[in-house]
Request: fold
Amino acid sequence: MVTNFLIYGLVNSAILMLSAIGFSLTFGLSGVANFAHGALYLTAGFTAWMLINYLGLSPLVAMLLTVVLIGILGALIYRFILMPVRGIILSEVISTYALGVAMIEFFRWKGFVSFDFSLPPFMKGGIDILGVTIDYQRLIIIGIALIIAIFLWYFTHYTNTGLALRGMAQDEYTALSIGIESDWAAMLSLGLGAALAAVAAAAILPLGIISINMGYDIFLIALAVSVLGGLESTLGLFLGSLIIGYAMVIASTYLGPQWGQVVYLSAIVIVLAIKPSGLFGKYKELEERV
Amino acid sequence: MRTSISHRKERIDRGIKVRSDDIFVLASMRDLLYVTLPKAIVILALLIFPLLKDVVGMYWENVLVSTLVIILLALSWDMLASAGLVSLGQAFFFGVGSYIAGYLSYRFGWSPLFTIPTATLVGAIISTLFLFPVLRLRGIYFGLITFALPLLLSRLIEATKVLGGTEGMSALPPLPGITGKLYLLIFVVFLTLFAFRRLVSSDYGLVFQGIRDNDRAVIAAGFNIQWYKAQAVFLAALPATFAGAFVTHHFQFVGIPAFAQDYSILPLTAVVVGGAGTFIGGALGAVILMPLSEVLREFGSLRVVIYSLLLLIFAIGLPEGVFKYVKRKYTQIERLTTMEEVKHD
Reply:
């Protein structure tokens, strides 16, 4: 029972972290709360499905192609939708939100609602760990979440591009004055965020069927995890997803499945009310409140 | 040194606008009509519409009810925005008002004549108390918390099964008569509209605008901005909680749909389409959007797609909104002027 709880809590945390990482990256680096994050995740799932079933590509190729395509889509969203309203917070939120809803409802209208829509897992079967049966796909998810977290931490701390993006996030004017272009940085961060949403979709969606409402849920989960952990802090993201992941497993085991959603929604409200910069955020305190 | 002649556009006020700006407007019937007709047409149309029950049918009378409700929520949104508080969850105020009215009527059997005023006032106080701890938040962070609050409350009601749980509370007493109901709603809409417009341009409202434009400067001037923001939330909550209480008795039911995202998105869309910061803009947006959404109803979920794309196009393409655009066309003309450019080379 305890090992079962520990392992499934870990899997849940890894799922949360993968779902949130793209959103957190975009929000932390360019300050755009990408309300279309869930829609991009959903679009990635359906794109991969279409590539596999209509074009007959092998799953791995289809998923890699999806990640690239969705990344480009993210960059295009910045160029054509966000750039004209850059800096007007309300318009940024409204346009990404409207776009997200339009994408999600488009899939619903097109009839992408049935049990046919599921992606193949990377590897079938499962193994026993300490008496708990766990399938390979869930282990792969933990692996991918760890690899991406490490990659991102390395990218934002030790590469020129990553440092430029972080510089832009910390002090836009200083970053501009040493030749980092604001629009380029924001476009890159949106593209990266979208690509990471596609990675999450490719890894997580094989666990079940692709359901439309996931598009809305994923955004809220991403918001909860990034707010709790603190933006642009990989360690915060890691801890935030562990806390919410285990809290969700505890709540749905002992109180009933409908409490899972209550956990992450109240996490958003409570953290924003008490410490809006989250556990590890440090740069934005003056922007957040007076 | 050479000079070149080029053209540019300039805007100037129409002659009739200038003539009708001051007291001499009384001298000419045409000028008087120019000033009063746009307002009079709207007000008269709204006042006459409820009487046409037999001509337009009950269906469109109900559309008018939902339009007026969205107008109230949009006005409430604009009031919050005038103090710099961007709300993404008008459904929060709406739901609080709905549930208070529903509970009073379901549990204690109060008549709608008592539940609606109580729910309006108590609901506004409760919403203010709820939001008081987060008033320090700025910009997007306040928006995010208002976005999450209605979702959280509806999930909490679902999970704890209080206040009727998922079934909600039904068979509540209705308000008598559709015509009387509509006039009550129309009266409240006009009251809110004119009161808010007047309030925001008063000295008191200037503090709100100051907070919106530069909150630290207002702190430096010695105002307690948390207290002012709380007052703005209270004032803005009044029409929204009233709308919630009204709809509860209109449908004779209150349940989780009271916190539905529709009540957050539709007012926001109305304000974006109509133009923020003018109050009339939000009302105009709702008048355009709600009948449109009824017409699009047969398209199923494509309706939502069209709706959100419309929102997107307006947010990017016409950020000033329909109202300011129309007003500019009504009062000003554009013409080409020549200008002489002197180049030193």
